[in-house]
Amino acid sequence: MQHIVSHYQTRKRNRAFAVMTILxxxxxxxxxxxxxxxxIRLSPSDLxxxxxxxxxxxxxxxxxxxxxxxIVISLLIGAxxxxxxxxxxxxxxxxxxxxxxxxxxxxxGLMVMLFISFYPxxxxxxxxxxxxxxxxxxxxxxxxxxxxxxxxxxGLSPTRIVLTGIAVxxxxxxxxxxxxxxxxxxxxxxxxxWLAGSIWGTNWKFVLSLLPWIAxxxxxxxxxxxxxxxxxxxxxxxxxLGAPVAKEQxxxxxxxxxxxxxxxxxxxxxxxxxxxxPHLARRLVGPKHEMLLPTSALTGALLVIVADTIxxxxxxxxxxxxxxxxxxxxxxxxxxxxxxxxx
Amino acid sequence: xxxxxxxxxxxxNGKPVAFRSRPWAATLILTGGVxxxxxxxxxxxxxxAADIHFAVVWEAIFQFNPDITQxxxxxxxxxxxxxxxxxxxxxxxxxxxxxxxxxxxxLADSGLLGLNAGAGFVLALCFAFFPGLPxxxxxxxxxLGAGVGAGMVYGIGSLAKGGLTPVRLVLAxxxxxxxxxxxxEGIALYFKIGQDLAFWYAGGVAGTxxxxxxxxxxxxxxxxxxxxxxxxxxxxxxxxxxxAKGLGQRTALVKLAGMIIVLILAGSAVxxxxxxxxxxxxxPHLTRxxxxxxxxxxxxxxxxxxxxxVVFADLAARMVNPxxxxxxxxxxxxxxxxxxLYLARKERxxx
Lengths: 343, 351
Prior knowledge:
- The structure holds 2 protein chains of 2 kinds.
- Chain A is mainly alpha-helical.
- Chain A has helices at residues 2-35, 44-51, 57-92, 104-118, 129-149, 158-182, 185-195, 204-223, 225-231, 235-240, 245-267, 272-285, 289-313, 322-340; strands spanning 150-151, 155-156.
- In chain A, strands 1-2 form a two-stranded antiparallel sheet.
- In chain A, strand 1 and strand 2 (155-156) form a beta hairpin.
- By secondary structure, chain B is mainly α.
- In chain B, helix 3 runs antiparallel to helix 10 (251-273) and helix 11 (279-291) packs across helix 12 (295-319).
- The longest helix of chain B is centred in the N-terminal third of the chain and has 35 residues, at 69-103.
- Chains A and B meet through helix 6, helix 7, helix 12 and helix 14 of A and helix 5, helix 6, helix 7, helix 11 and helix 13 of B.
């Protein structure tokens, strides 16, 4: 019996590794294609020359100053949002949970909206101020939701967080609707584009500001994979197994908020990745978090890099917001998986 | 969570299911609610940009005289608006209650069926390619869009082996909603019609006309009666699919009937007032909190409370900043949020 079980697990693990390898290869391919996509084409040989530092000045400017930072950012936010969603789904055990439930998108959006509404000019909105504002809005909202759902002697319960999150996010969305109707058309266009999820942080400074969040929080969450497996059994069972449930939930949720808030700050509302990334991963490798978390990171990264590339390429020279493309390519594939699924 | 362990808080390990139902509370809500609704209606007809005396309201309704301006205002603007609000509130609340009961997911509402996204997408197409379509057509098309959206969710959810499980329904709904919303957003950005759509989306019963009510009313009435007839089956489903099957229920049939009812209710509502979110999400929670877990009580009480919420929110929308109107959706959220926060703190695990 023991032997059979372990054999089965080995097969499952091997399959998961195969899936991750394939995803990684796809990401590399997308990376290469993405590097020569844009208004100015770089042929593969140009790319190679530029990468080793012997391209023309113009080529290296385009590649190093515009494209590469953007590609790196799209990989980072894809991974960050998907892992964040994976944590929230795992803890709340609700298939509809995603980072937006913690009020992150609403908080960031409202902050940006307020700023744009009261900022005198439209064209010269300081690009570096927006992510900071978004981050503040997202963190404050998440903190508010935590505070409202915290009860003495009982701590935090996922159900309460989810319900509180809905309420707070709804309140903020309502405030945003009121503001929307008062904006001038060109201001509205700017905000709408931002909300639809555009990666406009095409700058190494944004990469550097995002990197620490991702580089610290994602490994931390991976390290907690086993704890998440236990939490996934449900609160009573996890408590019965002796896990300090409330404390672990709080730590993991804080990590989820940190990841999502940092990502939303540089990308606006790419909401769908956090919902669908983890589900795709779950359908590919199953529910064990040791496999599920890294696979989520990979699916998320792949989704966003492909979406961003398509968004830049399809209607040149104008761009389609990445968030829209993510939903348009991610949703049909997800629906296809859903229709084929057995469970 | 398809592969997550299902948490059957009740009904597992052989214990009998404890029904926590509070018929007294429900009866109180039904009777008190009707009185409150009548009061709200009177207030709603008299207050607004122009205040009208109660006696005049009475006359306008029972001794209508077309030569008096105030009678005209009441008959042509305020009455339809009020009745529309009451109908829409009841419809959205009941649709949400059915969705939450069928999927056992506290985050579910009728929007999940792809209704709002479908209607919004069709509207975006209309605004972009046929600007200036008459209102009548807009309503018709948005209803069609809602139907197509719901049909797609149902179809995709049912394709898989094992049919339409609640989790599949919820996921298919979320994915299709995301897809259609993204397409609408794209169209809106490209054609720069976002703000026009936002006005529609913000939801308002302001422009309700008698003919809309005439078209809507029979459908909604039939759907509400249907919901009542289905309520016992929904209670069973809300205990979990296995339990319902074990009790001999034909779950596939119940789910199909439930979805058709939700489509009629929410589809009509969306077509008339745009996407007023939140009513369908919050009212069922509030009702469950007050009357317990029996859908024979939840459904009628949801209808009453939903009507109350929309009628009073619409009254507030006119009083806040006259003569300008505040978006109805925003006010509903404003009224609903504190309630909902309170509920979330109480947290009874009763889906």
